[in-house]
Amino acid sequence: MKSLEELKAIRERASKKINLRGGGEGEETKILVGMGTCGISAGARETLTALIEEVGNKELKNVYVSQVGCQGNCFAEPIVQVSRPNEKPVLYGKVTPDKVKEIIEKHVINGEVVKNLVVGSAFH
Amino acid sequence: MKEQVKVTINGKEVTVPREYTILNAAVEAGVRIPTLCHLDLHDLKMVNRTASCRVCMVEVEGRPNLAPACATPINDGMVIRTDTLRAIKGRRMAVELLLSNHPTDCLICPKNLQCELQALAHELNVREINFSGAMNEFHIDSSSQALVKYQSKCILCRRCETACNEVQTCGILSALNRGFETVVGPAFNLPMVDTSCTYCGQCVAVCPTAALTEVNHVPKVWETLNNPKKYVVVQTAPAIRVALGELFGMEAGTIVTGKLAAALRRLGFDQVFDTDYGADVTIIEEAKELMNRLENNGRLPMLTSCCPAWVSFIEHQFPDLVDVPSTCKSPHIMLGTLTKTYFAEKNNIDPADIVMVSIMPCIAKKAEAARTELAIDDHDNVDIVITTREFGAMLKEAGIDFDKLPDEDFDNPLGESTGASIIFGTTGGVIEAAVRTVHDWMTGEDLEDVEFTALRGIEGLREATVDINGQEIRIGIANGLGNARQLLEEVRSGESKYHAIEIMACPGGCIGGGGQPYHYGNDEVVKKRQQAIYEEDRRKTVRKSHHNKEVMKMYEDYMGEPYGEKAHHLLHTSYSPKERI
Amino acid sequence: MKNTRLHMLVCGGTGCESQGSDKLVNALNLVLDKYGYKEEVTVVKTGCFGFCEKGPIVKVQPDDIFYVEVKPKDAKRIVEEHVIKGRKVEDLLYVEPNEEEKLEKQHDMPFYKKQHRIALRNCGLINPEDIEEYIAVDGYLALGTCLTEKTPEEVIELVKQSGLRGRGGGGFPTGFKWELTYRNKNDLKFIICNADEGDPGAFMDRSILEGDPHSVLEAMAIAGYAIGAEKGYIYIRAEYPLAIHRLNVAIDQARELGLLGTNLFGTDFNFDVELKYGAGAFVCGEETALINSVEGGRGEPNAKPPFPAESGLWNKPTCVNNVETFANVPPIILQGPEWFGSVGTEKSKGTKVFALAGKVNNVGLVEVPMGISLRDIIFEIGGGIRGGKKLKAVQTGGPSGGCIPEKDLDIPIDYDSLKSIGSMMGSGGMIVMDEDDCMVNISKFYLEFTEEESCGKCTPCRVGNKRLHEILTKITNGDGTLEDLDRLVSLGEYIKDNSLCGLGQTSPNPVLSTLKYFRDEYIEHVVHKNCPAGVCKGIKRKQKEMKQQELKEQKQKEKEIQLH
After folding, report:
1. What is the 3-state secondary structure (H, E, C) of C273-337?
2. Which residues of C touch A9 (CB under 8 A)?
3. Across the 564 residues of chain C, what is the mean pLDDT of every consecutive 10-residue run?
4. Considering CB atoms only, which of B65, B73, B156 is closest to C456?
5. How far is CA B445 from the centre of its chain?
């Protein structure tokens, strides 16, 4: 180890390895995909994969993609919920892989809700 | 000027050097603090600072617990109390607890009236043992010819360990087991005879109780003296005459040579010889051997070989160097040999009827006498070895009032001695005696001032250069096996610059031997014995071995050439490598 | 890698491993592979979560779902349900004792709620066998900062200001110890990490070494820089194979990255670490005994002074700190002494890890801020007493700690308060006792331990503890007298006052504290020959004998009456 910079470079690289593990502290944006039978049959897996890839490509920190069970809105599957810290969760319906980029770009990164995809806000 | 600090002990302020312990300071303040494990033979570099017995506990202001006086350094303004109930209770309780796990057969104990634990119980006024309970019972190890180990009497002061490991570097004794069963012994608690123990006896010399004592050979001597068929001859080593008096209440360093000879005669020995005669013969042989090695590019340095513990040490610890020591047998073995050959022949006595008893300051001599390779014609040179202490006990048993004995002489011819042989009893003495002879022989002169003071002293390692006929003879001296080890490491690595090295296993030499009267941790005792040795040398008119008329006569009449063929057969030996355990 | 969306953190501490967490990791990987999720889900073996009562533990992140008592056979369900369908496996969630509700999140669980993790910060979070994961959580940043931006004096000052005290038992201020060693000038000095965890049932140091070995290596290097040592030894029990393995892996990785070795961070500071194995003697936790053992000698203490800071290993100035103490150092450097000082009490800063054991529901490892009450630890974190029984006492500080009665449970715990009620912090053992425990028998049990573990060097400990034990045995056999109780006190106080090292100086604590707080139980044993908890078998025998004797005498009497 020659310098502090060298260590910090390793830290940058390595932090990607473990950035999923900070969950549960309330500081992160969570993207939840409904993965009940209905969701999976409606193509939720592909949506989930696309979300993970996009988050990865953009090297977003404190953004976690996770899956949940059926939320009861089976008509709108695949359903994706985005919860930013200290904001009310937003529920998007019929999120096919091609819509993933827009949600990430607008809502996750810039905090701007993609209104035309919203199923219903504030369901909690 | 050393830095001085002030401490207050029991309300009395004293100013003492900064490096003092509380115990040292208490001595200055006139306050007695009892000790047990503590041992400080400062000048002999044997210091036991284990602070394990907890008998010297005192109160120190500001410290939550009691402190061991022997191991606690003082600091400026320290306030110490030794007289509070808490401190007194602490000290007495330690002795009580030790006694609760100690056999109480004091009346028939070999250390009766010489036991430091016993004395302590008396001093602290211990009248009952409030905490009696289970006691350890270990078997008695009397496997060796030299020492008896009775672990049930061990109080874990660890002095023997310090002597064995730090001073002598033999590494035989160490604490075994844990907790209540802890005891000191060799690895795996092997019998002593199966270890590399040199039997130097320094552990015995410092043991406060009877956990380590010499093998008692007194009954054998009584038996022999009362056997009309036996011709019993006795010899005594030079170091006995300056120490024996201590057993009879005399000041350390009192010379009792005349009373010693008289006492031996009273006991009924047929001949009272002096090991000094053997020492003079040793010098004749050793001086010739050294000159031989010097002249013929022989193995150098040459090491002296009078000390059996040292010989055993080199065989076990430096088996690759067994060709370095002189091949001379030790003085008492030589005297034994000469008694059973030369003397027996001359007086027409069957050597098989002769019993040779050696009185030695040493317990290793007991083991040495049993070495089979030293035997001549299938009989031992020396049959029984007893220590100074055993001899003192015999005299008491015999009802001899030592104080009132007249001064007598040793018997001829093997009682004739010189100043050179007397100084064999101290470190530096053997080599000084050798130099006196080598000098005269190499120069052909008769040197008047025989005192080579450069060779004297009590430090563990010394060196001196003696100029003989333009040739520089470099001499090294070691007393204590740890010091010997240092010189031997140099010999092993080829870095040794000496021509001759004198080694004695015991700190101070034979005067500090393991068979001497107990010094009870006072190195002044040893130093006074050394002064007495040199005083005895000064009293002698003949102070060179080659001037011992009886010795030279023996060579003329019987032995032939010194270091010659017959001498080789009778007076020399060889050493063999031994396993290190 | 970028496709990974889930991390399954499987506890790889000794406790969980012994319950099959190794097999569980394999099973999870196998099932994930089968379903084609290997890329998406990473299974990580981490250090101890501390909740050993409910092991093996699996924490799924970022979902923050905490599964307990997971068996290898559960792997299939976890993958099928949680990974594929996004549903929690309900029956693997934690249920608080005496409550119905299932708790899925770690921080909702009372066991974790009141904990504050500094020393254990990375245990259960990172893979201890991957140095990069440690670096990812700011590992070695403290060392780098110290070496490149601070002088040794500044580092010592930081540690001093933090108020960190030795976590191994003594509670000696760490910064002060460093300073003492720093001040003793010598060409050679040593750092020793004391990992000779000997208290029965205690395993905080083991867990740190298993779960976060680099934090200790980093702190040792920092300490080395501060005092001027280039060599560190970790004295670790040979019975800790997993910790030894993880340490060896960590040392290798650190050497490879140049975080141990020469010219660290481009400076002229060199530091390396070597392991020394202990054979499990309790007394080797005492620093001078430990040093003797490292040197190859018999593990027994020396009289102090001289302290190791003056003359320690090979007679060179040596700084000995405990594992947990070291684990606290990097965060102190990075987050500052004020941050550290904000946790804990005025004289005892920061947190302490305790090994909670005995009659509580949640046995395990807990890290709590200093100043928390014993009641909070036992009843909140520990979930109360097993089987709804009544608490009788709690013993802190390992085998030579004292027993604290119920009435003192609300005292905020720190070094000084524990000492004031006759116990001690020790290294963090905490054993809870209920009404079924006999306090006389308990103190006899501890005495048996210390008596056996005494090195035998000094008289008070070697003989005194034996005698104490004998008296206690006499009492539990129904042969005790009231005088024996006085003898226990007088002997116990003598041993404390006169012993050579900490072992003897504390060994009578269990006896003395139970005699103080539970004297009635002793009196019951001694006067009425009765063990109220019904534990002491000897006294039962005695009772039987007494009854038989009574019956015999009665019969004899009746006979005599008939005769008359």
Report:
1. EEEEEECCCHHHHCHHHHHHHHCCCCCCCCCCCCCCCCCCHHHCCEEEEEHHHHHHHHHHHHHHH
2. none
3. 76 88 92 88 89 89 87 91 84 81 78 88 90 94 96 97 92 96 96 92 90 96 98 95 94 97 96 94 93 95 94 97 97 96 93 93 91 94 92 91 93 91 88 95 95 95 97 96 96 97 94 96 95 93 89 90 82
4. B156
5. 35
Q: Are C312 and C186 in contact (CB under 8 A)?
A: no
At B398-431, the pLDDT tens digits run 999 999 999 999 998 999 999 999 999 999 999 9
Query: Closest partner residue to C459 among B73, B98, B133, by Cβ?
Result: B98
Q: Tokens 């040979």 appear where?
A: C238
User: Does the N-terminal peptide bond of residue B413 adopt cis geometry, omega within 30 degrees of 0?
Assistant: yes
Which residue, among C457, C487, C495, C509, would best test binding to B if mutated, counting the most B CBs under 10 Å from its CB?
C457
Task: Read off the pLDDT of residues B179-233 as tens digits, 9 standing for 90 and up.
Answer: 999 999 999 999 999 999 999 999 999 999 999 999 999 999 999 999 999 999 9
pTM to 2 decimal places: 0.89
- In CATH, which of 3.10.310.40, 3.40.30.10, 3.40.50.700, 3.40.50.2300 is domain A22-117? 3.40.30.10
The helices-and-strands tally (H runs, E runs) of chain C is 23, 15
**Pairing assessment for the beta strands B500-504 and C6-11 based on DSSP bridges:** unpaired
How crowded is residue C260: how many other Cβ atoms within 10 Å of its Cβ? 24
Whether residue C62 is preceded by a cis peptide bond, meaning omega within 30 degrees of 0, is yes
Angstroms from B49 CA to nearest CA on chain C: 8
Report all structural domains of chain C as residue ranges with CATH numbers, in order of start: 6-108 (3.40.30.10), 131-341 (3.40.50.11540), 351-434 (3.10.20.600), 439-527 (1.20.1440.230)
**Residue ranges of the domains in chain A?**
22-117
What is the spatial distance between Cα C4 and Cα B404, in angstroms, rounded to a whole number?
105
CA C468, distance to chain mean position in Å, is 26
Residue type, C523: I
B33-62 residues touching C, CB cutoff 8 A: 49-55, 57
- In order of start, what are the domains of chain B with their CATH numbers? 4-99 (3.10.20.740), 103-218 (3.30.70.20), 219-571 (3.40.50.1780)
Q: Answer whether B543's CB lies under 8 Å from B418's CB.
A: yes
Residue of B nearest to C493 (CA): B90
For residues B453-470, give the mean pLDDT: 92
CA–CA distance from B99 to each of B56, B96, C496 (Å)? 16, 5, 20
Task: Please identify every residue of B annotated as catalytic.
Answer: 286, 289, 306, 326, 365, 368, 373, 510
Please identify which residue in the block is written with the tokens 């003898």. Answer: C487
> What does DSSP say about strands B78-81 and B4-9: parallel, antiparallel, or unpaired?
parallel
Angle at C539 between CA C536 and CA C542, to 5 degrees: 155
* CA atoms of A39 and A91, how far apart (whole Å): 14
Specify the DSSP class assigned to residue C93: B
In single-letter form, the type of residue at position C363 comes to: V
Q: Is B494 helix (H, G, I), strand (E, B) or coil?
A: coil
C486: which residues sit within 8 A by CB, 6+ positions away? none
Are C50 and C365 within 8 A, CB to CB? yes
d(CA B542, CA B183): 51
Residue B211 CB partners (closer than 8 Å, separation 6+): B149, B150, B151, B152, B153, B154, B155, B160, B184
Q: Please, which residues have CB within 8 angstroms of residue B127's CB and are 6 or more apart in sequence?
A: none
C470, B174: Cβ pair inside 8 Å?
A: no
- Rounded to whole angstroms, the Cα distance separating B223 from B150 reads 25
